[in-house]
Each structure stands twice: as C-alpha cells, then as structure tokens.
Amino acid sequence: MGEALSLLPWIGVVWLFGIGLYGIVTSRHFVHLTGCLAAIQSSSYLLLLAIGYRYGAVAPIFYDKKPGTQAVDPVVQALVLTDVVIGATVSALLLALILQLHKHAGTVDPQAMRPMGRAGVADGRQRRGGRVG
Amino acid sequence: MNAVDVSSREAQATIARRASVLRGAFAALAVALVVAAWPVMRAMPQFGAHPLIYGDRVNAIGPAERHITNMVSAINFDIRGLDTLGEEFMLLCTVTGGTILLRGGRGEDRRAQPGCVRGRANHRPPDSLRLLCRMLAPLTMVFGLYLAINAVLTPGGGFQGGVVIASALLLIYLAEGYAGWRDALGGEFFDAMEGLGAALYALCGFAAMGLGRPYLAVFLPLGSLKSTFSGGSMLIVNLGVTLAVAGGFATLLIEFMEETRALNPGDDADG
C-alpha cells in the first residue's frame, strides 16, 4: 500500500502527459490543441513538485517559522515558476498564431491544413485514383 | 493560403479514416509509454522521503547569508539569477513575437475606439458587472503590488505580482468597456514598462560588475531578516521582473483586444 501511494504522483504525471498527447493527436481545433499543450505542461509541474516533496516538511518560507525547519525543496518550486511563466507566454504566442491563421486561411482545423509540399485532405480522392501527392 | 476545404463528404471520410489511424497509433504509443515508464517510475526515489541536498543547502544559506525568508525568491533572483534573466528575455521575445504577429495582420496603429466585430452586438456591460469590477479591480491591483513588494518575505514575487496586476487591468476592461479602458491605459506606456523592466534587470547585473563582483551578485546592504527592505539588490531585480511581467502581459492583452476592432478604411488588412 505504501509503495502504491509512493507511485501515485508519477502515475499522475504519466497520465496527464498521456491525455494531453491524446488531445493533440486527435485535435480538430487549434485552440483546443493549445489547451492540450497546457495539460502536457502541467505534467511537468506535477513531476517537479512531486520530486521536491518531503513528508512533514513546511513550505520553504521562513517568515513565520524558525530558519532551519525541515522544508520542501525550493529549487524545483522555482523551476515550476519558470515553467508556468513560459507556459503562459507560449500559449499567448500560439493563440496569436491561431488568430493570424484564422484571418488568412479562414479555418482553425488542423486537419484542414495542407502539409507543406504534400497533398492535403481534399486531394485524398485523387490520391486514391492513383495520383501520388 | 494552405487551407483546404474539408466540408465535402470525401474530405470528412478521409479525416475520419486518418483519425482512426491516429487513435490506433496513439493507443500503441500509450502502451509503449506505459511499458517504458513503469521501470522509470519504480526507479524514482521514494516519494516524500529522499534527501533534498540542494534544497536543504538553499534553505540554510537563504536566511543566513541573504537575510530573506522566501527561498523561491532567493533561487530566482540570486542563486539562479542568470537563468531568470534568460526567462525574462524569453518573456520579452514572446511578447514581441505575439505583438508582431498580431500587428502584422492589422497594421500598427492602436486607437481608443470601441472594438466591434461585424455582426456582433456591442452591448454596454450591465451595471452589476461594472460595479463588481470597479470594486474588484483596485483590490486585485493592490494584491498584485503586495505580492510583488513582499517577494523576499512571503510567497509571491515579481512574476506572480506582475500577472495579478495585469489581470486587474482586465477587470478594468470588463467594467469600463473598450473605449474607457484604452483611455485609462494610455498608448505606449506598457511597451515601455516591459522593455524598461527587462533592462533594469540586466543593468542591475552590470552594476554588480561595476563594483567588482560577479554578474548579478547581490550588492546593496542586506538589511535585517523579515524586513521589507532585506535582500539588497534582489529588490531591484524583483522590481524589474514586476515591471516586465505586468507590462508584457498588459501589452499582450491590449494587442489581443485590438483584434476585435473592425478595420477602418485605409487600414492595411494583411500587412
């Protein structure tokens, strides 16, 4: 039981990463895809915080506690802070790209985007007819 | 542009077929991921009961050597100060990139006219919402300042405080509507704030070098433990981060909000 509980944070990390990846793979809307990317990123927050956790320890803030009290790891917490900031800015940049895409192409469906230099979805009929894209 | 029409039944069938292939590939990948992750998870250190060597060192030297009580700030603004400078410039780059992307499609001017998408009604916000937001916006702003100012003492810091300050600006938008919001915020103010904040951070590092210390080393008097003015030049660095984050997010908010403005005759539509 104790061991299963000890595995729980890591299982949560893998699960968050997995559902985020599933969302990206099957996404039909770029804003949804950006949200899925945020879910993947949350798995890294959970991983870092779980690594730095310590049973019975306090937060690494010694304003109301004596310095020297057993505290959790502040290094990973600072990393998570960086992670959150970068995640927010990356989302903003992606959303700006999506807005531009919507303006230029009139769609935000990843499936409707033609892969560069190759035939896209609408050419599937022709490809089945023997034409190589 | 590279978009293709996917409304036809043929295209939908292709997409459905492709989606089932993708789901199959994902299922295989997920199984492989679980198989690969299992030994890694088993080999992970015991959760909550393994030595935290670096963390304990930081927790020991933060209060003793730097006279501050928030260890996360000690790491961000002192021990990993250079990394935070990099993060700061990543923020600057993304804000610049987002602004360029948005302005590229809209033209560069920003004006205080209500945004209106064609075909969408532009109602005045209800009075209850305006009252609530007018009360909440200053409180949120003060809370953001509190978080930013007490960076070295209690949970918070320039990043958190800056984001809370920027969200107070959104509340002002909800209360005042677009025109009032733009009147209140002014034009280029937040651009300058963002750039100057990042510059303040970088220059603070050079000031330390001018005193013959390493880049970004703490130089001013450290003050006493639990005092607002403890931590020396960490306070300047924190101020730079606050300015840059609040300015950067405010700039992004303005640029995104400008997207709702209908194009005027003479505006360059696609830059």
From TrEMBL, chain B:
Membrane topology designation: Multi-pass membrane protein
Location of this chain's protein in the cell: Cell membrane
InterPro entries hit by this protein: CPA3_antiporter_subunitB, MnhB
GO cellular component, one term: plasma membrane
Top-rank taxon, per record: Bacteria
Record flagged with keyword RNA-binding: no
Keywords: Cell membrane, Membrane, Transmembrane, Transmembrane helix
Classification via Pfam families: MnhB
Chief subcellular location: membrane
Residues passing through the membrane, by range: 21-41, 159-181, 193-212, 232-254
Ranges for domain Na+/H+ antiporter MnhB subunit-related protein: 129-250
Family: Belongs to the CPA3 antiporters (TC 2.A.63) subunit B family.
Protein name: Sodium:proton antiporter
